[in-house]
Amino acid sequence: MRVKLNRITCNIELSKIILFPAFMVIIILNACSGNIQKYTLTEKDVKISPDYSGVTLPPNIAPINFTINETAKKYLVRISEEGGEMISIKSSTGKIIIPLTKWKKLLQQCMGKDIFIDIFVKKNGNWVKFPPIINHVAEEAIDSYVVYRLIDPGFELWNKMGIYQRCLEDFNEQPVMINSLSDDNCMNCHSFCQNDSHIMMFHMRSSYSGTVIYREGKLKKVDTKTGQTISPGVYPAWHPEGQFIAFSVNNIVQTFHSIKQIKVEVTDTLSDLIVYDTENNIVFTSPAISSRVSFETFPTWSPDGKYLYFCSAKALPLSQYRNIRYDLLRISFDPTTCSFGTTDTVISASAHGNSISFPRISPDGKYLMFCMSDFGNFSIWHSESDLFIKNLESGEILRPDINSEQSESYHSWSSDGRWIIFSSRRIDGLFTRLYLSYFDNSGNAHKPFLLPQKNSEFYTTFLKSYNVPELVKTAVDLDPRKLLKTGYSKPVNATFRDILR
Amino acid sequence: MIRMHDTNRMQMLLIKPRYRLVTVGAFFVAFFLYFVIFNRYHLIYQEEIQLFLFDKVYLRDILAKPGSLSEYIGAFLTQFFLFPFAGALIVTLSGFSLYWISGYIFRKNGFNGILWEMIPVLILACLHSYHIYSIAYTVGLIISLMYFAFCLSVENGKLRFIIVLIGWPILYCITGGYSLLSALLCFIHELFFRRTRSGLIIALLIPALALTVPYLATKILYYVKDGLAWTYFLPLFIGTPYKYILILCMIYYPLILIIAKGWHTFSKREVLVPLWNWKNIVTGLLVVVSLSGLIYKYFYDRKTEVLLAIDHYIQNSDWEQALKLSASSPERNRMIMHFTNLALYKTGRMGDELFHFPQSGSAGLWLDWEQDWIIAFFGGEIYYQLTYNSEAYRWAFEAMVAKGPNPRSLKRLVLTSLIDDNTALAGKYLKVLEKTLFYRTWAQPYLSYVNHPELMNENKEISEKRHFRIYTDFISSDNFGVRLPQLLADHPDNRMVFEYFMASLLLDKNLEGFATNIYRVKELGYKTLPIHYEEAIIAYMSYAGKNIIPEGYTISRATRNRLSEYAALIYNYVNNTDLAAREMYNKFGKTYWYYLKFNNSQPR
After folding, report:
1. Chain A residue with minimal CA distance to B398?
2. Which of A43, A303, B89, B545 has its CA 20 to 30 A from that of B283?
């Protein structure tokens, strides 16, 4: 009898401790809850995809449409600011499409505040409510457009590719240039001067090869290959004043691996830096950035234009590709005389068995973001590649909590430095997707979120990769038709000038 | 030929419905049989190089080009080519639609006779004999002719004007360059047959539309390369002589209309009607039979059909059938050779019968990498079978990229990703296949592995491949070929790699390499030495003077007897190699000794 009593007492305790809080049934007769008069609260977090929980959103971002990963007959989502206006969305499939106008209005009201996403699902005839998803709306808007290239994340062959601009405030995507108009050629490395969509360049390859430069409303096509340089310009960086573009010039080799952990390695066998003067059609360099004993690549300018940052590694033969590790260097530059000063090392990664690629400095000049992997420079094929941030004032290097087990690679800053966009292969290890992250005044990168799409399951079957995301303040006023004439034209040959003479 | 008002006589002499039915029925039965028997693997191949998806993005991408709806319908229909009977039926039905519309158009323009309606169908048979001519183009042609037929049926000039003004631009969007055919036909019809005021206005409107609409569409609606606006979606890329046949098809209809008009003008008769008499029947029959013969001789591509058939049997692991076809193949190219050798291994006959089939060095064991989707599409199979998984994945991916998503590449990407434990990636490809009509069933069991990878252990194929996964990293680059020594170093128990390695050594006449590796037969548990290995051992021992017979093995009596005969015979032709090659071929052409001594050929 005593044992039995103990058991009963024990069961009651168990209910109090575990079951009661977990499945606290609340009957609410509440006019505000719309159709749902009665629901059960659960403490279990709801899973939604993409993961838009606990993130900081720009006040001008497109609706973060998502899918509720719960099996249920009906779904209801309410999005609101605390005690404020509410957006209600019903669904029978779990796919939630947020109305654009209401979403925009809500975000404007919630700038600097949190928004709450309440999710209800109907299972076995009863409504269940999950704990709310709370997101923060930043006060700072993100640049309205992102320009990227859509490519097959493949090996050697390609088919359709193009450079596209996507309005971040809605879902509108327009081509800037597509290769179906230029004999399916390769096109790459679009770049802007300080997030300005009116100063732009990209390369066309194969039959229409040349660098298309758009500046001061004029288009021109240039062949930056000269007799003194390795190749035409490859990885670009606009000087903040808009007159110069620094390029790497490379001889690039692709190799394919036999093991499952790594598929492709892209290695430079030659690599220098050059600077192209867009006004005078001149290419120049300096021995300090075009040495035969080292590979120099991935140029980027300091926001004041006084320093050229770049990655540099000891030149090794292809057979030693695993030992090619890049440090981060910088060299002073005087734009008035086009002269370079001395070089100094910013980060000596190779000493620690690491390799740096894609350095990018925040517009305020305080932070430097870069990729770090075990070796080489083509970080997208290195699953260990992560993003790092160096505080240029304190010298501190941090690995922000925005990385994954898969490759994080190309990234860019918004014009005000409050947002970063970066490419990541975290979903499936191959198809690169774009993630946005708020970068606060204290130098912290917040939890990143996937670039929203109208169809929340868009990425599931989309077989292209997003490549080279660049944030720009306004729409690029170019399209394939406007670019055709320049694209088809014969490029103007740049002239090499020896600045040492 | 008769006058229209001579009705009694005409009734007597015109074809009776039941005769027409029999004639047309027999014609289309023959048409169907031509595709279901002779072009069976062409049809299957067309299905394999496309992927119709029930997906908005897929639809959006197709709608972004002129000819959109035709392409969409064509892609939808092509997925049924997975079943050759259905494929042949669809092509036959499209042929019948063409026949029916052509008949309607010709009759409306005072031109009658089933022969003229059958000729476009014969043209269609030519075009569909080309392995990459898609049904989408036939759909475009039929829709374009349907539009013209619709215009013919409208008598009201104002209504026709509206149909042309609004309808033709829509037709351009639906059929691309095929709309020009209907524009030309409308123009001829309005100008020469209607001869009314409204007809003249429409005749003036049509060239204006045909000139401006494609131009404006590519300036406003579509991104199409300059100069291609008018011909977009016309398959002008197809090789000769098919391209000329396509052009013939495009000029046939206007030509018939012009002939009809000329006949009416000069003969003063309203209708051109060939009579149903023996003379015309025999003539018509002769024309159809002759044209059919010409199609079979000049347009039917047997070589490609055999290649595609072998590929089909390889894909379905029907190795015996692949070998049977290979033996009867008139072609001796590298593609067929490498499939044949794969089938030989799979039937356990590589070591015994490798030289029963044409060989040309180790190049016949695989295809060298080229930046070409055909190579990527066909050549990846060998890597998968050898469990060179990274290359199998790469070739499948390259094929998918270059040709666009297709079921074969996607299925291979699923399997290679699962073998590599990359379930998330496999899941992605499976989700794409889930959006198809016929591959979603294939995808289902593999989808369960995405969330429960442990279930993969129950899959024999995947388990075996996972066992042979490579763990030593080495680099593959262009034309490195299959890295057999490295694969074997990682997995000496991979029997297929061993046999391919030995075959490559034999084919390259590398007897030193063969002698170095013959010891592996014992490790791999061979009960007896394969015949060609015995022959190679004897060949090596005869010049090196070293015994390389692995311990526990002997050379069979049959091989020793054959050697005696071979040695005796070759002694007779010491000074005349060519004669020896000819005379000894019948008896020793299937031995390694013969290959070693006489074969110097290179594959194509």
Report:
1. A157
2. B89
